[in-house]
């Protein structure tokens, strides 16, 4: 990929590390230089929120809009009923229309933080618009004939399942045809010329380009972003406590801020380029800091990313809570909170149960190991007795539980 882009969007994608591959860099660059264009990413509504793993895609759409074009968030009201088999080891459980619609409504709130959906700006479209009323026989005749089973079987997302002799249902096998059909319909109805997606979607994107060229005879393009892992090999978007959700009701602004503050040193510069809008030179400068100064860069990363999603006030409050908890040993107002009822502790509750309930450990065994290894604290005092019982009197004022130096929860009576 030696082409030096002229269009602002492709320049940003290349300079900031968003670009994994492109189907025709030169032609796409020319199209972006010729006027305002539409690009889309599809998001299935399999949960009430997207998580940090989707943030690189959302930032791609944000930059597309900042560069003067129109991003499209395509909600998979139709495809969610089928399920994307890409690189999964099992079949997705099927969801009903009520749950799908509810998830889409929740996810809209996240997109609104990053994109402007005003007149002639970003668009949110639901693929149920054309998928729900498909005539199956017409679809097979007009669309299905353009797909080669031999070629579909060669895609990594399918091949990996078959190589492990794991079931791949006909329902899921149709997913890649439906996704290709999405691209064609978006081009036909709205003039969309570009699909963005993670590099695991390359096969699906190429299918859509091929179908659109065959049926609509339009030139369309695909651009993929890298599948991110952290420098220590972990999948982006996972933490010790589970998925890092983008919805504030599923993960507090403080916990979101703390996730970014815990970035490993080696990832700071790269993440600043991908997840903030700081100038590239500043990202490089901050990423190159060493010693104690790298912690200031991590706090800057956390505040910048949290500001984009939750707003400047929430980011400032999260930073203030972190300073209170970590530097002053206090109890910040924004700490994750576990509220217990009188029934919960009628006969007392063990410290092990409390650590598990607070989300600081995944099991009683893990909580006991945390205590045994000196990693658990209560009100900043080392916990050494795994048999300790907590009663209502002990919760007359909130307790601060800690796992290591970076994870804290308040426990209080409701």
Question: What is shown here, in short?
Answer:
The chain is an alpha/beta fold and 414 residues long. 44% of the residues lie in helices and 14% in strands.
Summarize the biggest pleated sheet: 6 strands, mixed
Low-pLDDT regions: none
The gross shape turns out to be globular
Put simply, the count of helices is 18
Terminal-residue CA separation: 59 Å
Question: How much of the polypeptide forms β-strand, as a percent range?
Answer: 5-15%
**Mean pLDDT score:** 86
Helix content: 40-55%
Which characteristics define this entry?
414 residues; 5-stranded mixed β-sheet; 44% helix; alpha/beta; single chain
Structure write-up:
The structure is a single chain. By secondary structure, this protein is an alpha/beta fold. The protein has 18 helices and 15 strands. Strand 2 (38-43), helix 3 (55-66) and strand 3 form a beta-alpha-beta unit. Helix 12 crosses helix 16. The radius of gyration is 24 Å and the shape is globular. The chain starts with 7 loop residues before the first helix and ends with a strand.
């Amino acid at each position: 990929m030696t082409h030096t882009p002229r269009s602002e969007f492709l320049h940003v994608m290349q300079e900031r590390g968003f670009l994994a591959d492109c189907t025709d860099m030169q032609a796409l660059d020319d199209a972006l230089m010729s006027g305002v264009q539409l690009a889309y990413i599809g998001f299935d509504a399999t949960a009430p929120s997207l998580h940090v793993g989707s943030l690189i895609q959302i930032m791609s759409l944000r930059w597309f809009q900042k560069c003067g074009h129109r991003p499209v968030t395509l909600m998979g009201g139709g495809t969610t009923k089928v399920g994307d088999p890409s690189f999964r080891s099992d079949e997705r459980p099927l969801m009903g229309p009520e749950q799908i619609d509810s998830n889409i409504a929740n996810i809209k709130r996240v997109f609104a933080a990053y994109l402007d959906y005003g007149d002639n700006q970003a668009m949110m479209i639901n693929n149920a618009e054309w998928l729900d009323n498909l005539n199956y026989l017409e679809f097979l005749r007009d669309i299905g004939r353009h797909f080669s089973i031999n070629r579909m079987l060669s895609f990594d997302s399918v091949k990996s399942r078959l190589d492990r002799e794991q079931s791949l249902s006909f329902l899921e096998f149709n997913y890649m045809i439906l996704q290709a059909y999405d691209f064609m319909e978006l081009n036909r109805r709205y003039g969309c010329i570009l699909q963005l997606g993670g590099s695991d979607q390359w096969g699906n994107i190429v299918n859509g380009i091929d179908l659109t060229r065959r049926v609509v005879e339009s030139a369309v393009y695909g651009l993929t972003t890298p599948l991110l892992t952290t420098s220590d090999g972990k999948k982006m978007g996972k933490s010790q406590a589970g998925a890092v959700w983008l919805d504030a009701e599923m993960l507090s602004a403080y916990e979101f801020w703390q996730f970014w503050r815990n970035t490993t040193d080696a990832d700071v510069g790269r993440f600043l380029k991908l997840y903030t809008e700081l100038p590239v030179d500043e990202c490089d400068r901050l990423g190159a800091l060493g010693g104690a100064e790298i912690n200031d860069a991590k706090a800057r990363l956390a505040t910048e990313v949290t500001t984009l999603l939750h707003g400047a006030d929430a980011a400032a409050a999260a930073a203030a809570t972190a300073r209170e908890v970590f530097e002053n040993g206090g109890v910040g107002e924004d700490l994750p909170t576990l509220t217990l009822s009188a029934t919960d502790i009628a006969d007392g509750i063990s410290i092990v149960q409390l650590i598990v309930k607070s989300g600081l450990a995944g099991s009683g065994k893990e909580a006991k190991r945390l205590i045994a290894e000196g990693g658990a604290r209560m009100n900043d005092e080392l916990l050494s007795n795994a048999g300790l019982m907590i009663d209502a009197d002990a919760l007359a004022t909130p307790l601060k539980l800690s796992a290591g130096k970076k994870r804290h929860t308040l426990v209080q009576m409701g």
